[in-house]
Design goal:
Radius of gyration: 27 Å
Bound molecules: iron/sulfur cluster
Structural class: alpha/beta
Number of strands: 17
Strand order of the largest sheet: 10-9-8-7-6-3-12-11
CATH architecture of the largest domain: Alpha-Beta Barrel
Strand content: 15-25%
CATH topology of the largest domain: TIM Barrel
Number of domains: 3
CATH superfamily of the largest domain: Dihydropteroate synthase-like
Distance between the termini: 79 Å
Number of helices: 16
Largest sheet: 8 strands, parallel
Length: about 450
């Protein structure tokens, strides 16, 4: 039974030193009880107390890792129902289904899509994570051969799928070193599958027909010494899947330990329509699947899911920011235009994209505005002449160009006069307000002063 805030408080040093980031031990105890603080933030708590408090301070949904190395996937660890309450911690893992009954060519094509559908956005690399390998053949040797093939062609994390413990054992023989997720322990095979998970140290899925059945199964697995458990409610309709995910998250936050595990959802089993499946997967990412297994990956549906996942799992209290500096776009030279913008990543991404669209090589000066957009930064005094001019002087752009023309965003037009005073050698030009108008603006651009002959 988890401890209350008052019970936790009795175990803390009670010095109210504030080193944990909150002013009093009582406030820290309340945050611990709510799963919103990390016990390690208190430097003076004893190790005995740490042991006693570990359950109370553990996230309501247990974090666990599938796979090894740089492609390991961490899921769970969630502490809130809504992102704005704090943040969502570990992004939903996206897996592609590969069956051991598929042809070699189809398996190769799916591995290619898993490996090569990789995107850069706002300075981040977006890519899918896992291969879900299903033993449809019923043959242990065929399944093991598929696992070996995928292992040799991708370093992604693996899910191995069969309800036959012997087939799972054959699969684990060839991939236990990759710490796959074992799917699945059920009422029928729990003892055998639990033994495999214990022996290999791999995480395991508990699958049941009802939430009561799943809770009993996770209790059984936990008693057998397993901690890294993922839940599958086996929902086959969107409504049922949605209800299950909400119920599990709420129950876990209410400290129902039997349901305090990340979940897996098989959107591949819910529809044959790829676009409908993408919509279901987008719901699953938002509410609250730890892993989504898709029937296939296609760029046009995978990319929106990756962007959705990125947006949901960023910290809402920290704007995404790009590094301050000079960005060269399209191979600029000493006569190329110089544009200025803020370091809000989305602003940078849109402005740099429109510059690329223009096909006019440019320098883009990105000013550190603590991740605020141009308008917000201007209103906060972080994108005004006094702040911009020292950056322009020190950034080194004058070594790269012969002219002295600076194009500022239209939304910062009111700073043009101040900038001409602060940067007397420069001609300040007011660019478009909307990034979409940048290509037309650049195509007609000519330096007003100081162009190289
Ligand atoms: S750091 Fe520890 S002792 Fe200090 S206020 Fe926080 S909980 Fe209390």
């Amino acid at each position: 039974m988890p401890l209350t805030g008052i019970e936790i408080f009795k175990l803390l040093p009670k010095t109210n030193c504030g080193k944990c980031g909150v002013p009093t031990c009582l406030a820290f105890a309340m945050q611990l009880a709510a799963g919103k603080a990390d016990l390690n933030a208190c430097p003076t708590v004893s190790s005995e107390t740490k042991d006693k408090l570990s359950e109370a301070s553990a996230p309501p949904i247990r974090p666990l890792t599938i796979g090894v190395g740089s492609r390991a996937v961490k899921i769970g660890g969630e502490t809130v129902l809504f992102r704005h309450e704090k943040r969502f911690e570990n992004p939903t893992g996206l897996a592609i289904l590969i069956s051991d009954k598929m042809s070699d060519a189809e398996v190769d094509a799916r591995i290619d899509r898993l490996n090569n559908l990789v995107y850069e956005r706002v300075g981040l690399t977006l890519r899918p994570d896992m291969a879900a390998l299903r033993a449809d053949s019923g043959q242990a040797a065929t399944f093991a051969a598929l696992i070996n093939k995928v292992k040799s062609k991708s370093d992604c994390s693996l899910i191995i799928i069969s309800e036959d413990a012997d087939i799972l054992a054959a699969g684990l023989k060839v991939c236990a070193d990759r710490k796959p997720l074992i799917y699945a322990a059920t009422n029928a095979n729990a003892e055998k599958v639990a033994a495999l998970a214990k022996e290999t140290g791999c995480p395991v899925v508990a699958k049941g027909a009802t939430l009561d059945e799943i809770a009993a199964l996770t209790d059984q697995l936990t008693k057998s010494g397993l901690k890294d458990i993922v839940i599958d409610t086996n929902a086959k309709s969107i409504r049922q899947a949605f209800d299950d995910q909400i119920f599990i998250r709420k129950a876990a936050l209410a400290k129902t330990r039997s349901l305090g595990f990340p979940t897996i959802m098989f959107t591949c089993d819910m529809t044959d329509d790829p676009m409908k499946e993408a919509l279901i997967a987008s719901m699953a990412i938002a509410k609250y699947a730890g892993i989504v297994v898709l029937s296939d990956f296609q760029g046009h549906s995978l990319f929106p899911l990756l962007v959705e996942r990125m947006n949901i799992y960023t910290d809402p209290q920290k704007p995404l920011a790009t590094k301050e500096g000079i960005y060269e776009i399209g191979g600029p030279n000493e006569n190329s235009p110089v544009l200025l913008t803020s370091n809000f990543s989305l602003t940078y991404f849109i402005v740099s994209g429109e510059i690329e669209n223009s096909k006019v090589p440019c320098y883009l000066l990105v000013k550190d505005t603590e991740g605020l957009s141009v308008m917000t930064a201007w209103a906060a005094g972080k994108f005004v002449a006094d702040a911009i001019s020292p950056f322009v002087k020190k950034c080194g752009i004058t070594d790269k160009i012969k002219h002295r023309n600076l194009i500022i965003p239209g939304y910062a037009a009111s700073e043009s006069g101040g900038l001409e005073e602060e940067l007397p050698d420069w001609k300040i030009e007011v660019g478009p307000r909307e990034a979409a108008h940048i290509p037309a603006y650049l195509k007609n651009w000519k330096p007003l002063i100081g162009a190289a002959k």
